[in-house]
Amino acid sequence: MKTKKQEFWTEAAPRILADLALVHLAALSSLAAVMLTGSSENLTEMAVQLRHFYLATFTPLSPLFPFIFFLNGFYTRSRAYATQYKWAVVARGATVASLAFLFAAFLLTRANSFPRSAAVTFPILVNVLTIGARVVKNWISKTTAASTPRSNPADRIASDTDLAPVLVVGGAGYIGSILCRKLLAQGRRVRLLDSFVYGDAAVRELFGHERFELCIGDCRNIQSVVSAMKGVKSVVHLAAIVGDPACEQDRKAALEINYAATRMMMEVAKGYGVERFLFASSCSVYGETDEVVDERSATNPISLYAQTKLDSEQALLRGRTTDFHPTVLRLATVFGNSYRPRFDLVVNLLTAKAMRDHVITIYNGEQWRPFLHVSDVAEGFIRVLEAPLHLVSGEIYNLGDSRLNYTLGQVAEAIQRLVPGTKVENVENPDRRNYRVSFEKIHGELGFSCMTHLQEGIRDLQEALHSRRIEDYTDSQYHNQRFLKAAGRLISKEETDSQVMAAFAATLENYQNVLPELAGEPK
């Protein structure tokens, strides 16, 4: 299997050489401009000096440029950036590299070997050429793609990534119902695999869409998964029993769906040549800590939900091959309105309580949580789907925005400002989960930032409640634990499914109190 380092050099080497050539062109153009504007009396002497500077100073120092470009992500990250952000990053890198070169040249020569006029035009030319080359390349790529005959898609190979649908497992839920719409809006084909535990209302309007395919089935059922995976190149796995209370409500189903089904789907995906496998994990894997954590920090899951997420991460990353590329996204605490609303999430619940009762209760108000709007979660998954495969393969990303790390007390204050007259009651309880999260990796490598801040999400919830688009937020359909409790245990319909799930879960020691039940034995 080719290593990520080998993959990098194979793809980046031509781009590094191209940038180095552009930098040399900028230098030669700047020096030529000096010659053209110089006095005709000493042109020969000036030409000798400039030639000496170019050969003795510029050429040895020119590797500074690709080195600084590399540090700014030109060859590792920038292709995944949104266009406007990409040009800003390239301009910053080109400017920093130019200034670094001028400073280094001055230190080496201790003289003004680089004429002042050239010192002004050179950084400008480096910016123009490095950005311009990328603009032209993008334009050529789009023009070529647009001119490619598409009148008869059947003539194209079935495995073509452009035609292959994105499979969204659990796409009828809180996040998936938004993600499916965003993918369709991009012109992608979308295939949905969902058992509709919570109903189909969130995606019903998509039925009949020409680029939307529906597979009704349980992610624990191997036949359903096999059918859904055919012809797919990218999978977004969102299916889960979400949240600590819901997992404790039905530990057997939580282990089956959150872990065993993930392992089974991975094996099926490999068999069908799926390239990208995006997995929705959770920042709750960090547990309780007073430190700001990032992807390299130690994990400390303190709930069944967090443990199943962490074990699924590890199984997927171990399964990475040259053809199968998993990416783990650890989600911040999600909030905001959706096509399948939820009011068992802290911001959503507190907003609804404030509007109805004008009293909210905050437990352990000094504890930190990272937050992220549900629409931005979908954007984060899309950003990974669009990223170069070598960049995101086998990676873990905290999905969120460092600006949205808040204490629960700060959340209460934000709600108070938007719902005047709200009283806050502070209570201490044994739940000591406390974590602040760094999201610099996903921002730095993929250019991801949130678009919807806490206050905007609260206002949107207010509008939905005020307009009675959501009539009764206490209805069990908006609460995972209550709904599952009313619905009863999520038992696998086929005995074979239970046996398959037991086999995939049996390798773990973390669930010894659940495994006997999973295998059908009394606890």
Structure, explained:
With 523 residues, this protein is an alpha/beta fold. The chain has two domains: 4-137, no CATH class; 168-505, Rossmann fold (3-Layer(aba) Sandwich), CATH 3.40.50. Helices cover 50% and strands 12% of the residues. The protein contains 19 helices and 14 strands. The longest helix is centred in the N-terminal third of the chain and has 34 residues, at 4-37.
Brief synopsis:
By secondary structure, this protein is an alpha/beta fold. It has 19 helices and 14 strands.
How are the secondary structure elements laid out?
Elements: H1 4-37, H2 43-61, H3 64-71, H4 83-109, H5 116-147, E1 166-169, H6 176-185, E2 190-194, E3 212-216, H7 222-229, E4 234-237, H8 244-249, H9 251-271, E5 276-282, E6 292-293, H10 304-318, E7 325-331, E8 333-335, H11 346-357, E9 359-363, E10 368-373, H12 374-386, H13 389-392, E11 396-399, E12 405-407, H14 408-418, E13 423-427, E14 436-437, H15 440-446, H16 454-466, H17 480-487, H18 495-505, H19 515-518
Parallel strand pairs: 1-2, 1-4, 2-3, 4-5, 5-7, 6-14, 7-11, 8-10, 9-13
Antiparallel strand pairs: 10-12
Helix pairs in contact: 1-2, 1-5, 3-4, 4-5, 6-12, 7-9, 9-10, 9-18, 11-14, 11-16, 14-16
Number of domains: 2
Query: What strand order characterises the main sheet?
Result: 3-2-1-4-5-7-11
Biggest sheet features: 7 strands, parallel
Instruction: Give the name of the CATH architecture of the largest domain.
Output: 3-Layer(aba) Sandwich
Please bin the fraction of helical residues. Answer: 40-55%
Number of helices: 19
Q: What is the mean predicted local confidence, pLDDT?
A: 86
Fraction of residues in β-strands: 5-15%
Radius of gyration equals 27 Å
Output the CATH topology of the largest domain: Rossmann fold
The beta-strand count equals 14
How widely separated are the two ends? Answer: 43 Å
Indicate the overall shape: elongated
